[in-house]
Amino acid sequence: MVREQRLIPDGYVVSRDERFLHFFEIEIYNPMTRAKLESYARMMVDFDSFGFEFAVLSVNKHGHITPVDLRMHYFNWLSRMAERQA
Prior knowledge:
This protein is an alpha+beta fold. It has two helices and four strands, in the order ββαββα. Strands 1-2-3-4 form a four-stranded mixed beta sheet, with helices on one face. The protein is globular, with a radius of gyration of 13 Å. The model has no long low-confidence stretch (mean pLDDT 90).
């Protein structure tokens, strides 16, 4: 799944034992576009289906780390896909 993506995070943490993958995005260097957020949201759903936690964490210029709620981006993507098929 990850190899199919053309997104490169600013950093990441992987744990096979604990079954998670966390991506870090530093907003001042690499702003997240709608397309990027929706790609990450689709990855979240894909990883979840295999029992892995996938999260994106945004780091601001002060070093504060905030988890990104990818669910709304997934629902927005689903809505657009449904409109295209209608």
